[in-house]
Amino acid sequence: MSIPFYGLKEKDLNLIYLSSIESMHCIKVLRHKIGDKIKVLDGMGHIYECEILDDNYNSCTVKIIKSDFIEKNKFNIHIAVAPPKSTDRLDWLVEKIVEMGAYKLTFIKTRRSIRKKVKIERLKKIAISSMKQSFNPYKIIIEDMIAYKDFILGVKEKQCVIPHIVDKKRLFISKALESDVNTCAIIGPEGDFTVDEVNLAVDNNFKTVSLGNRRLRTETAVISTIGAFNFINGF
Amino acid sequence: MSIPFYGLKEKDLNLIYLSSIESMHCIKVLRHKIGDKIKVLDGMGHIYECEILDDNYNSCTVKIIKSDFIEKNKFNIHIAVAPPKSTDRLDWLVEKIVEMGAYKLTFIKTRRSIRKKVKIERLKKIAISSMKQSFNPYKIIIEDMIAYKDFILGVKEKQCVIPHIVDKKRLFISKALESDVNTCAIIGPEGDFTVDEVNLAVDNNFKTVSLGNRRLRTETAVISTIGAFNFINGF
Question: Domain limits at A138?
Answer without folding.
Answer: 77-233
